[in-house]
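Throughout our pipeline, every protein is held as a single compact record rather than as scattered files. The remainder of this section carries one protein's record, kept here as part of the documentation.

===
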Amino acid sequence: MSITRESAQQLLNSQDYGDRLRGINQLRQLELGVAFELVQPLINDQNTRVRYAAVSMMDVVGTQDLAVSLKILRDRLSDPEPDVQAAAADALGALKLTEAYDDLQQLYQD
């Protein structure tokens, strides 16, 4: 079965976090612009694993809008889960968003 925007969206909207994780993985097979749009709501998901997977996708799809990506990733630097914080820091580095250097420095000094 081919992966479409609609099939990925259905998984991303599921109540089951396993489905949402599968949906995030399917985003890799869609156009970057579509994936960027669809991953954003999951960056604030209630499930830590889903948030981590969504933030981890930003290093690839975040190129679609660097200003929005910077805002999203800066916010996730204050996520209560250290793994999500680390994924946000990694994505900021991968996207070469040097504007976030002070944020990263503060995160790692605290």
Notes: The chain has one domain: 5-109.
